[in-house]
Amino acid sequence: VLKTGGMFGGEFGLRTVATHTEFGGYQVAAAVAKVPNVAIDIGPRTVDFYAGRDRQFVELATAYDAAGVENVSVNTDAVSHDRADQLAMQGAVAARFGLGDAKALKAVTLSPARALGIDDRVGSLEVGKDADLVAKAGSLLDLSIPVDLVVVRGEIAYRREGWTP
What burial class does residue 82 get, using C-beta atoms within 10 Å of its C-beta: 0-12 exposed, 13-18 middle, 19+ buried? Predict the structure, then answer.
């Protein structure tokens, strides 16, 4: 099935999103990388702590990326706005355990937008796109650095007390 792109990606040329790809799914990442129109969405668990006989753990987004899968994103299963911090944590875990800041940030912004087919409107900062913005004095994925400013729909939604641009 993976060799031909499966019924959806190969035969019909449809975009395919494999979501919640954990528990060993990364072991076929090299085959997935050869399939057109496939996006991998990992989570809510992003680390496999039981990989291999030597009990080494595998950061799943990193494993898919290393195998050549071009569109990798992470999810949280957090279904309400009060758990939005979980997405940053998933990205931070991916960054810390091998994916790096730039790719991990893409995994929580542009990659999921591409998987959903809405990257023409959201997912990156470009003229003409809708964008909410978070500003920090350092990596957005460094959870020890406080958020300085949040802009939603062009309006300041939060400004850290004492922060000046």
Answer: exposed
Gap between the Cα atoms of 16 and 44, Å rounded: 19
List the pLDDT tens digit at each of the 165 positions of the chain. Answer: 444 445 555 566 677 888 887 777 888 889 888 887 788 998 887 888 766 666 678 888 999 999 999 899 988 876 666 666 788 888 898 898 889 999 999 999 999 999 989 999 999 989 999 888 899 999 888 989 999 999 998 899 999 998 887
The residue among 33, 30, 95 whose CA lies nearest residue 62 is: 95
Q: If DSSP codes are grouped into helix, strand and coil, which group holds residue 69?
A: coil
Residue at 92: amino acid letter? A
Structure token pair of residue 153: 């729909």
Q: How far from 24 is each of 10, 32, 36, 46, 61, CA to CA, in Å?
A: 23, 13, 21, 11, 12
Q: Which two tokens stand for residue 118?
A: 């809405």
Question: Using CA atoms, how far apart are residues 4 and 48, in angstroms rounded to an integer?
Answer: 28
37: which 2 tokens? 């129109």
